Amino acid sequence: MKENNLNREVVVIADDFTGANDAGVSLAVRGKKVSVAFQTPFTGDTDALVINSDSRAMVASEAAEKLAHYAADVTAATWLVKKIDSTLRGNPGAEVEALLTLSGKRQAIIAPAFPAAGRTTQGGICRVSGVPVTETEFASDPKTPVRHAQVAKVLAEQTALQSRVITPDRLADALQGDAPLLIVDAQSDDDLDQIIVAACGCDERPLLVGSAGLCDALARRLARPRQLLAVIGSMSEIAQQQIQRAGEVANVSRVLIDIDDVFRNNMAGYLQQISTALAAGHHCLVHTCADVQARHQIEKLCQQRGLSRAALGETISAFLGTLTRTALEANTPAALYVSGGDVAMAVASALNAQGFAIRGQVAQCVPFGRFLGCRWQGPVMTKAGGFGTETTLLEVLHFIEEKMSD
C-alpha cells in the first residue's frame, strides 16, 4: 500500500497529449484512477500519472533535457513507462536513455507494437499493416518523418547504448544479460502480455518503452480486482440478516471471528482465510456475530472477562482494526466495507487515516469515499450497524462487480 499519493503504481512519460491519453485510457477502464499532467509537480490523488512532455517535435537533446524535470515522479513509480509512437516518430533513443539515467534502471524493454491498430514488429522492423513503416505515409510526416524501419537504427541515431533484438519467449533470459536496450518483437496482444509477464518476473522492474499496445498489456496485468473485503462488527439484527443474504451468494466467503481469539490476539488463521478467499476471486465477509442470538450473550461474556460492555466493544474493535490493516498490507481488494461505527473508527485509526473524503452513495445508508492521508487509498464504504435492509450488502456487492468495472 502507498504511504502517500506520490508513490504511484504507474508513471508514464508521453511525448504528446493524444499519446498520453492513449497510454492512460486502458488503465482507467480497468479501475485505476488516472490523471494526465501538463505540468509538474503533480500532487493530486491518482493511481497512475501520465505526464505529457510535449517533446515529440523537439531536437533530441532538448527532449532529454526536458525529461530531467520529472526526476521526482520517475523515481517514485512502481512501474515506469516511456510511451512512444507506434511508428517511431519523435525522440525515442534520447528519451529512453534519459529515463534510464533518471530512474537508475539497468534495462529497458522496447516494444513499439500496437497489433490492434495494425502496428507490429518482426525481426526488429516496425511495420504498419505488414508494410515497413518507411514505405508508408509516416516516412513523410511533416513534423517528425521516420527514416528507418529498424527500431535499432532509430535508437542508434540518438543513443550509444547497446541494443539487442529478441522474441518474447527469449525476453526472460535476456533480462538477465547485459544489453541495456531489449527490442522485443510483437505481432499480437498475446506477445505483449508475454512481455509484461517477463517484466513482472524481474527483481528490479525494467523501464517499459512502447505504444498504447504495451500500455494496454500492462493495464490488463494490473487490472483492479473486483473483490470486496467487508468487516462487520455490528451485532444488530439487520446486520446479521445482511450477512446471511450475502453469504448465500456463490462467490462470497465468510470468516467468523471467535471472541476467544480476540483476547489471545490470534489472527494468523483469519489472515490466511481472508487471503485465500480474495485470491480465489471471492468477496470476503469478516464478522464477529454467528447469528442473531449472539447479541444476547454479551452480558455473560462481559462477566467472564471482567469487562464492561464498552471495554469489550473497544477490544473487539481494536482487534478488527489491526486485522483489517494487516489484511490490506497483504492483499489488494477492490474496496473496503466497514459496518458499525466503532469498528469503522478502529479501522480508520489502524490505517492512520486523517479524515474521510465522501464521494457518493452506493446504496441507501452506505456512503463511499476514501480515507485521507493514510495507507489504504482504495474506495471505502461505511454503514451504521442498524441501517439498511436485508439486501443492502448484496447491493454493495453488485456495485463492486458491475459499476466499479465500468
From TrEMBL:
Domain Four-carbon acid sugar kinase nucleotide binding: 229-393
InterPro entries listed in its UniProt record: 4-carb_acid_sugar_kinase_N (IPR010737), 4-carb_acid_sugar_kinase_N_sf (IPR037051), NBD_C (IPR031475), NBD_C_sf (IPR042213)
Any one Gene Ontology molecular-function term assigned to this protein's record: ATP binding
ATP-binding in keyword set: yes
Gene3D superfamilies listed in its UniProt record: Four-carbon acid sugar kinase, nucleotide binding domain, Putative sugar-binding, N-terminal domain
Domain Four-carbon acid sugar kinase N-terminal: 11-218
Record carries keyword ATP-binding: yes
UniProt keyword list: ATP-binding, Carbohydrate metabolism, Kinase, Nucleotide-binding, Transferase
Pfam families reported in the protein's UniProt record: NBD_C, SBD_N
Family statement: Belongs to the four-carbon acid sugar kinase family.
Protein name as it appears in the record: Four-carbon acid sugar kinase family protein
Gene source species: Silvania hatchlandensis
